[in-house]
What we know:
- The complex is a heterodimer.
- By secondary structure, chain A is of the alpha/beta class.
- Helices cover 37% and strands 18% of the residues of chain A.
- In chain A, the strands form 2 sheets. Chain A has a 7-stranded mixed β-sheet with strand order 2-1-3-4-8-7-9, with helices on both faces. A two-stranded antiparallel sheet of chain A has the order 5-6.
- Chain A is globular and about 60 Å long.
- In chain B, 42% of the residues lie in helices and 19% in strands.
- Chain B has helices at residues 10-21, 36-44, 60-72, 83-88, 90-98, 125-130, 147-164, 174-178, 194-200, 224-244, 265-279, 297-304, 320-328, 347-360, and strands at 5-9, 25-28, 53-56, 77-81, 104-109, 140-142, 168-173, 180-184, 216-217, 248-251, 258-261, 284-289, 291-293, 309-314, 334-338.
- The radius of gyration of chain B is 21 Å and the shape is globular.
- By secondary structure, chain B is an alpha/beta fold.
- Chain B has 14 helices and 15 strands.
- The longest helix of chain B is centred in the middle third of the chain and has 21 residues, at 224-244.
- At the A-B interface, strand 1, strand 2, helix 3 and helix 5 of A face helix 3, helix 5 and strand 9 of B.
- Strand 2 (72-75) of chain A pairs parallel with strand 9 (216-217) of chain B, so a sheet runs across the interface.
Amino acid sequence: MNPEDIKRPENKVYSRPELLCDVSMHYCPGCSHGVVHKLVAEVLKEMGVEHNCIAVAPVGCAVFAYNYIGVDWIEAAHGRAPAVATGAKRLNPDRLVFTYQGDGDLAAIGTAETIHAANRGENITIIFINNAIYGMTGGQMAPTTLEGQKTATTPYGRRVDLNGYPLKISNLLAQLDGTCYVTRQSVHTPAAVRKAKAAIRHAFESSYSGHGTSVVEIVSTCNSGWKMSPAKANEWMVEHMFEAYPIGDLKNTVEK
Amino acid sequence: MKEDVKLMKGNEAIAHAAIRYGADGYFGYPITPQSEVLETLEALMPWETTGMVVLQAESEVASINMVYGGASTGKAVMTSSSSPGISLMQEGLSYIAAGELPVLVVNVMRGGPGLGTIHPSQSDYFQAVKGGGHGDYHFIVLAPSTVQEMADFVGLGFDLAFKYRTPAMLLADGVVGQMMEKVVLPPARPRRTEEEIAIQCPWAVTGHSAHRKPNVLTTLELDSAKMEVNNERFQRTYRLIEDNEVRYQEYYTDDADYIFIAFGSIARICLKAIEDAREQGLKIGLIRPITLWPFPSKIIAEMSHKCKGIMVVELNAGQMIEDVRLAVEGRVPVWHYGRMGGIVPNPPEVLDALKSHIDNA
C-alpha cells in the first residue's frame, strides 16, 4: 500500500475521540491518565450523553481534566469531588455525573466524602486513578503507596509501623450497600484497555440508570514519580501493584 | 391578600423562607444553636411540593461542597451552621467566592473560640466580614435582629447573591436563631425553571452543552497575570457592592449626644437602654448596621461630626469596633462594651457602661 492510499478515509482505522480536545496534555509521557481520559471521552460519546453530563475534576494531576474532555466540568477542592458531585447530581438528577480522582484526593484527604457519597448510594460514577503516589506535588507517599515503596516522603521506603498499610479503598467501598458496581482495572496492555473501557461504560450506565454509586479503580503507573521508564513502570506495576490491588470486579449488582 | 402571620423561632423562619423563596437546595449538618433549620426543612418535606432538595451531609466540609456543586449548576442553594461548623466550611467558602457562586450561608453564632459554648455570641464578625478563608474576597454579610428579618433576609441574601454573582452570608446570633416572635412569612414564589437558569446564568455548569461551548467552573489559574485579572474582577464587584448595597437603620440619632453602634440581637437591647436613658435626660441614638459588609462607614463618619462619643456594643471582645474606628478617624472617642462566652447583657448594664465611659472621659 502506498502512503497516499493509507491517507484515504476508508483506510482510517483510528482517530482521536471527538470529545477529546485537540490540545497537548500536561501529563508525563507514559502516564496512564491520557489513556483513561480517552476511554472516558469515547464512552460518553458512544452513550450519547456528552450534552447531558456534569464531570467533577479533582486536585492532583487530573486537575486540568476539564481542558481535555469536552463536557461541562466543575473543579472541586482537594478530596471534595464526591460531595460536589452529590450537590450537582441531587439538583440535576437526570444528568450523568461522574468524578475523576486520584488516590491522594480520594483515599486520603477525601476519604469521608468518598465513603459517605458511596454509602448514600449517590447515582454517580467515580473514576479512581491509583498510582500509589502523589504525582502533582512531586512524588510523595499516598495512602495507596506499597510497603517498602520509595517516595519523596518515604525516601527509605514506606514502613507500615510508621505509615500504616496500603489502603485498599475499593474493597472498602464494595462493602457499602450504596455501591452497585466496584471494579479494579488497568490500562497497561491493549487487552486491559478494552476491559477498562467496558468497565467504565458499565459503571456509567449503572449509576446513570439509578442503581447507586459505581467505582472504577484504574491501577496506574506514575513513571515520573516512580522514577522509571514507562516500560519499566508497567513491569513494576504488574509485578508489585497487582499483588496488592488485584484486577477484577469487586462487586457488581447490575447485569452487564 | 391575607398576611400569613406565624409565631416561630428565627431558625424555623429561615427554613420556611427558603422554601417560599423557591430555593433549589439545602445541605447542612446539625449543630446547636441552629439545628432547627435542617429539622424544619426535613419536617416540611419541600421536595414533595416545590421540588427543593434537602440533604443532611456527613460534615460541614461536605455540606459546603455540596452547596458548591449545586450552585455551580446555577441553582439557588444554601446551607446553615453555627460557628465551629462555619470554621470547617472556610475552605469551601473561599472556593465559592473564587468561583463567583451565588450561594446563601447562614451562621447562627455561638461563643468561641474552640468548641466554646452553645450560647449566643457575635465573635465571628472578623471571620465573616474580613474573609475567613484564604485569599482576597468578601461576602455580602446581612445581620438580622428579629425573627422577621431572619425570614426576610433569606430572599434578600439570595437576590443580592444572584445580582452580583457573589456569596451572601446571613450572620445571626444565637438569640435571634432561638427566640420566638411573630413573623409575616414572605409570599411563595416558584423555583426558577431550567430555561430561566440557562438565560440568567450562562456560566452555569448545567451539563446541557449541546448549543454552547462546555462550561467549566474552576478556581484554578496558574498564569499569575490571568489570576490577577480574576482578582481585579472580584474587586470591581466588591466596589460595586460597597457603592450600592450598604444597609443600616438609625434610631433617635437626630438629637443624640452619644451613639450606640450595634448589630443583631444586642441592637435591640441597646434600643431599650436608649429609651430608659432618654427618660433620665440622656440623649443617645443607635446606628444598627444591617450589612456588616459592606459596612455603613459613611453614616458613622457623618455622625462622628455631630456627637460627643460612640460606644460599640457587641457580644464579643471588640471586633466591629475596628471598622467603626476606621470610619470615625479619631474625631470622637469610640468606646466598647462587649460580653463574651455566651453572656448577653441587659439594658441597664449597657447604659451603665456608657455612663462610666462618659464620666471617665
